[in-house]
Write a structure and sequence with these properties.
Layout: E1 2-7, H1 14-30, E2 33-36, H2 38-41, H3 53-64, E3 72-76, H4 83-89, E4 95-99
Parallel strand pairs: 1-2, 1-3, 3-4
Length: 106
């Protein structure tokens, strides 16, 4: 399986973006990939609080640690590109792909 990092918006309309992130993960799995979406994992209750700048930065940095072992970064862009996603764009040594799956829920 190809190891991929999933990037999609989180901040802003958090509930919509959480649902969208789960759809992105599902889409990736259905393509036969092994996705990691740190913004969906680390922001769960009891892990990190995205509203606390230090914790948000910790989560972003932990997600970036996966860059060394991933085969590609997949940007799901139906809701645009958020600030956390823009930070990943600076790390262009991996294959970057853009995908859309639509804004409608499953």
């Amino acid at each position: 399986m190809r190891r991929v990092i999933i990037e999609s918006p989180y901040a802003g309309d958090v509930e919509t973006h959480k649902t969208y992130s789960r759809r992105c993960i599902r889409d990736s799995l259905q393509r036969g990939e092994a996705p990691i979406a740190s913004h969906s994992l680390y922001t769960q209750p009891g892990i990190l609080d995205d509203n606390i700048p230090e914790e948000r930065e910790l989560g972003i940095n932990a997600g970036h640690a996966w860059l060394d072992v991933a085969d590609a970064i997949i940007f799901y862009t139906d809701y645009g590109i958020g600030n956390g996603m823009k930070k990943v764009l600076a790390k262009l040594y991996l294959k970057i792909e853009e995908r859309t799956i639509g804004k409608n829920p499953i």
